[in-house]
Amino acid sequence: MEQSVKSRILFVDDEERVLNGLRRTLRGKIPLWEMEFAIGGPEALNILKQREFDVIVSDMRMPDMSGLELFQIIQEKYPQMIRIILSGHSDQEYLLRSTASTHQFLSKPCEIEVLDSAITRSTKLKRLLRNPQLVRSATQLKSIPSLPTVYREIQQALQKETVSLNEIGGIVEKDPGMSTKILQLVNSSFFGIAKHVSSPAQAVSLLGIEITRSLVLSLHLFDQIRGGSALPGLINQIWNHSTTVAKMAKKIARQLNFDPYDIDYAFMAGLLHDIGQAIFATEAPRVYMDLVDRTRQEDQYLWKLEAETFRTTHAEIGAYLMGLWGLKDTIIEAIAFHHAPSASGQTTRTALCALYIADVLDAELEPEQMIGRPTQFDMEYLARLGLEKQIDAIRKNILSR
Ligand SMILES: [Fe+2]
Ligand SMILES: [Fe+2]
């Protein structure tokens, strides 16, 4: 039986006044959260020496040690902690969203409801990914695909204060196989770019860093999985579905006025959302093929049969791997809950809702491509996000591709 344990949250700010304010406004969370408050980074690190926390929420601008410096230390010493930064909206800081040491970025001043929901979501996700059965299944995978070197190098480059598109292009160029694949995709009708793109640097400047990074990751993963799989046809089918959903999710995110980062996250979540299916198909091809057949015979959801057979689903396995590789929480969350968005507890529009709508719409548009019973719209979830009346407009916009 799962015991309900309180989540432990550490708040850090250089101003006593701010901490007192948080203490007051968050009093209602005491039954659920064990909270501690630290004045500045050094004190936070001292507290962390004594006990463990699930989540740390820190101010960005602090005199002794910036929030980012603090998070870099924490990432190294306590990698399992969820790191949320509160920051003002200057461009420089905006860029920090793409650094690996921060899981979530909230802009200041931050409404208490937004902070509450960010922390609640993080702890839910953490609990889900800590599910012992899931960890057991994931660690028993014979062939956990590896993170591509190019991806890791881009990550490292992004840690630097300034990085140029050229530099990122240069990193991609070092891997000829990857360069070829990216150029093929960019020059195909997939992105609808009219001019011919001849170098990775040019591709990066057209696509942006986030999209390039997600292509590097997903092309590599799918290639690696396809290479080791007895079912390359099925893997191709999953890849085709994933690229379509990625494109749709991006279009939806744009239509819903997401900020540029979240538009890219929606795309990336789309590319990777069903990677768990590809992993099952490679790990246990015969069992998985039977399961795919059964979804047809029994008109059953794929994830339901997966849960019965493997005690975990492709959504969870995918999210788990993305978590291991340090992808953004928004992406992990989108993947984890793409068949049951209500369970995320999410009340705002992020990559999850764009991915979810795209996945359902693709099933409507290409039913023959689908594995298992198609997911239907969860109107309660859409209503919570104020989207129930917008679905028709979104569908129309997608059809106009
Ligand atoms: Fe799925
Ligand atoms: Fe899907």
Describe the overall structure.
- With 401 residues, the chain is of the alpha/beta class.
- 60% of the residues lie in helices and 7% in strands.
- It has 21 helices and 5 strands.
- It has helices spanning 16-25, 41-50, 67-77, 91-95, 112-130, 132-139, 149-159, 165-173, 176-187, 200-207, 209-227, 232-255, 260-272, 275-283, 285-298, 302-310, 314-324, 329-336, 351-365, 379-384, 391-399, and strands at residues 7-13, 33-39, 55-59, 82-87, 104-107.
- Helix 7 (149-159) runs antiparallel to helix 8 and helix 11 runs antiparallel to helix 12 (232-255).
- The longest helix is centred in the middle third of the chain and has 24 residues, at 232-255.
- The chain is globular, with a radius of gyration of 21 Å.
- The N and C termini lie far apart (48 Å).
- The model is unreliable at 94-98 (pLDDT under 50).
- It binds fe (ii) ion (2 copies).
- Residues 241, 245, 273-274, 359 line the site of one fe (ii) ion.
